[in-house]
Amino acid sequence: MTNNVVSEGGKELSGKTGSDPPEENAPEEGETGKKPPAKKRKKRNQTARFFIKLGIIIAVLGIAFTAVLGIHINHGNGMYPFIMDGDLLITYKLDPYMVEDAVLYKDPETGEEKVSRIAAKDANNINITSMGQILINEYVPLERVFYVTMPDETSEIEYPYQMHEGEYFLLNDFRSKTDDSRAFGKVTEDEFLGKVVFVFRRRGI
Questions:
Q1: DSSP letter at 173?
Q2: What is the pLDDT of the chain when averaged over all its residues?
Q3: Which of 26, 34, 148, 150 is the most buried (most CB within 10 A)?
């Protein structure tokens, strides 16, 4: 409420008493009514953009490793000496599979992930001699493997073994390990999980 006060000179002075209510737009105690400084807003925006970019990079890498690349730790010495027990393998899934490629695949009988080498593909006649030599269409293939190749005595596969288009015959480099196509026969690309392109020595993992 406004009171009129008469001064000594006879003039009226207008004033407000201490009991007048505060103005409606006045800030409450502890509030300044000011926006955060521009530097702080800019810093928050930069942080948000960083985490958005980081999320995009992680998503792209996840897609790449799912659709293009793969990681596998090898167990066993079926591919000795090229691949050893505990080695970390990087596989690539987009290249066509060729003879002499080392491939990661699922064993058609057990579903276990294994690594073997493509010895033959498509329509071929496979034979194994009594001297431990593999023949493909009656010819000795060019191989880097120096171990003798003997059939799996527990398998029902008979030689000569006939293949057809789209089929692959896999052999371990360490030929004494016969848990390859000598045990389960031909496979198709449906069992393949990628071609081995890098080998990192990590023994005993």
A1: S
A2: 84
A3: 150
